[in-house]
Write a structure and sequence with these properties.
- This protein starts with a strand and ends with a helix.
- The protein has a 4-stranded antiparallel β-sheet with strand order 1-2-3-4. A 3-stranded antiparallel β-sheet has the order 5-6-7.
- By secondary structure, the chain is mainly beta.
- 13% of the residues are buried.
- It is 7% helix and 53% strand.
- The protein is built from 1 helix and 7 strands.
- A hairpin with a 5-residue loop joins β2 and β3.
């Protein structure tokens, strides 16, 4: 993941790269996750890790420290 914006509006944007090289932006705000692009987004959080699925074929595990810093 990479940081592509600041947290000025309490929205934390992180760019992720899929194995096929395509890129997507995940937005974390107020305990919710949204994504750029098309696809059905599912997500959950366990401990300090976010589990994110897109169209039941793209999956990411994002540590909370990568989202908020730490």
């Amino acid at each position: 993941t990479s940081d592509i914006s600041s947290a000025a509006s309490d929205v934390y944007k992180r760019q992720v790269t899929a194995p096929d090289g395509s890129e997507r932006v995940l937005e974390f705000a107020g305990g919710d996750v949204t994504s750029s692009g098309d696809g059905e987004l599912t997500w959950g959080k366990q401990g300090d890790e976010w589990y994110i699925g897109i169209d039941n074929r793209e999956f990411y595990v994002v540590p909370e420290a990568a989202v908020y810093g730490g």
